[in-house]
Amino acid sequence: MRHFITGALIFCFIGTAQATSHPHAYGGIPSDGAFVERNAYIIQFDPVHKTPRWVAYHVKPSYLDTPSRGEQWGKFRTDPDIIGEATEQDYKGQFDTWWRNYAKGHLAPYFISGGDRDNDGINAEGGDPDDAKTVYEIMYMSNMAPQHHNAFNGSGGLWYEAETYIRNTLLMAQQKEVWVFDGCIYGPGSYDTIGSGVEVPPMFFKIVITETAGKPKVLAFLFPHQIKKHGKIQDFLVSVNIIEAMTGLDFFLDLNDEEMERKSTWENWE
Questions:
Q1: Entry pTM
Q2: CB distance 211 to 217 below 8 Å
Q3: Of 47, 1, 11, whose CA–CA distance to 242 is shortest?
Q4: Domains and CATH numbers, the chain
C-alpha cells in the first residue's frame, strides 16, 4: 500500500549549520554533520531514507563536455565511501508500471561531469584518470533517488525541465557559472518504498545561484513529486526560507542578508 503526505508537510528542524566555505556550496555548507567530497559535487547522505539529504555543485560551461553514456561511462556504481545506499537490485522491476515507473534520478546530474578539471590537457575520454573519476562518481548509487521517469525525471517533467534550463540557458546560451543545491524532502509519515526500504521522496528542492556583476542571484524551486506532468518550473518558485523550514537546512551562512536575496522571482531573474 502506498502512503503519501498530502497538503502541507509538517516542518522539521534538524540542528543548525555552521558557516563553512566550499567551492561547490555557495555561501557555505547548509547543515552540520559529515559530507563527502567528490570532484564534481559534495553530498550529505540520508541513511534513514537511503537517498541524498542534499548535494551541492559548482559548474562551468566547460564541464558540459561529458563522455557519451556508453557502457564504460553509463554504468551505475557502488559508492565506496557511503554505507546504506540503494543498489541496482532495489530498482529492479520498478520501471514496469505506469504508476511506479521509478528511475534512478541523479541529484548531481550527469551533464556536469565533463571537462578537463585538472587542466592537464587530457579529459576523461582521453584517458585522464582524475577526470574519469569525476564521471564515475556522478554514477554512484548514493547520488540517486527514485524519481517518476515519465512525469518528473523524463522529458517534460519538472526535474527534467529545471535541469534543461540550467544546461541549455544558463550554461550554454548565457555562458554563466552556476551553483546548485539539490535535495530530497520528507516529513513525518510513511512513503512508497522500493527494494530494501529505499523511500521515495514526496518532494524535491533545487536552489540555483548565478552571479551578475559579482552579486548573487537565486532561484529556489520546491517540486512536488507526482505522477502527472503539470505546470512550468517558474510556477514552483519559493523563498529559500520555505525550503529551510521544511528541511532544517540553513543556506548562505557565509553571506549577510544584504549580499543574498532569499526571495526568488522569475521576473527579477529574467
A1: 0.90
A2: yes
A3: 11
A4: 36-178+189-269 (3.40.570.10)
In the DSSP assignment, the letter for residue 140 is B
The CA distances from residue 124 to 44, 64, 127, 143, 180, in Å, are 26, 12, 5, 20, 23
Q: Are strands 144-148 and 215-224 parallel, antiparallel or unpaired?
A: unpaired
Are the CB atoms for 250 and 15 separated by under 8 Å?
no
Centroid of chain to Cα 132: 21
* Cell digits of residue 228: 502527472
The one-letter amino acid at 243? I
Please answer whether residues 193 and 214 qualify as being in contact, where contact means their C-beta atoms are separated by less than 8 angstroms.
no
Q: 144 phi and psi, to 5 degrees?
A: -110, 150
Mind listing the pLDDT tens digit for each residue in 196-238?
999 999 999 999 999 988 889 999 999 999 888 778 999 999 9
